[in-house]
Amino acid sequence: GYTLTSKLLFKTVIQAIHKYAFMALKFKILVKNKKIGTLKETHERKGSDKRGDNQDKETGVKKLPGVMLFKKKKTRKLKIALALSDLVIYTKAEKFKSFQHSRLYQQFNENNSIGETQARKLSKLRVHEFIFHTRKFITRIYPKATRADSSNFNPQEFWNIGCQMVALNFQTPGLPMDLQNGKFLDNGGSGYILKPHFLRESKSYFNPSNIKEGMPITLTIRLISGIQLPLTHSSSNKGDSLVIIEVFGVPNDQMKQQTRVIKKN
Description:
InterPro entries: C2_domain_sf, PI-PLC_fam, PLC-like_Pdiesterase_TIM-brl, PLipase_C_Pinositol-sp_Y. The chain has 265 residues and is of the alpha/beta class. 22% of the residues lie in helices and 12% in strands. It folds into two domains: 1-54 and 76-89, no CATH class; 91-216, Alpha-Beta Barrel (TIM Barrel), CATH 3.20.20. It has helices at 10-20, 82-87, 99-105, 116-125, 127-136, 156-159, 175-183, and strands at 30-33, 54-55, 62-63, 89-93, 110-115, 139-142, 165-166, 244-247, 255-258.
């Protein structure tokens, strides 16, 4: 992006992934790129795998020698490098035009990147279409252009509509990164987190701004003690302590509570 950071080579990124990612990660890496490895760039296979069969991208039917398949229209071949396919799970970036265009023409292995401003507008005006889109296609949300200072937005509003990749500026600490780190502690930081069923089911009409279904729950937290509190600048090194607990989720679930203040603790 156009933030106040230096550029990184792809080689540097994958070297860092190789060195550190698999300390916790147990699965393959998802690579999102505008250009993927092709057969021409590897072994010039021209659409055939190492066994000599040709596989149709849309139907998945293998063409055998001497057999002719009749089709209404010519379909595109998916030319991929098998060596890359064996290493990672990758998706091809496709420019987002509209939800209708994606439903009609977008392939299962293609993803979209939508800017923060446009995504926020669509999430308010066409929320059901947006959620339907994220059920079928990997959707990435990226910061708006005015965030040249590497500031971040709240990722929760886009997680609420099922967006799989919410891009944050990891070099900038704060609440958005706290939410990011906290969310992916669910599986120990070892990979992907499955979306809730109402963001995956085709018959669901979930709307994060208008919850009509589901049973509410009450969350009760008992605070026992606090340890390793930072020192204060007072002469006695004692401060007035309190604990603030905040819940993030759909708007109806947003809640903030705090304990009473303990003087000179």
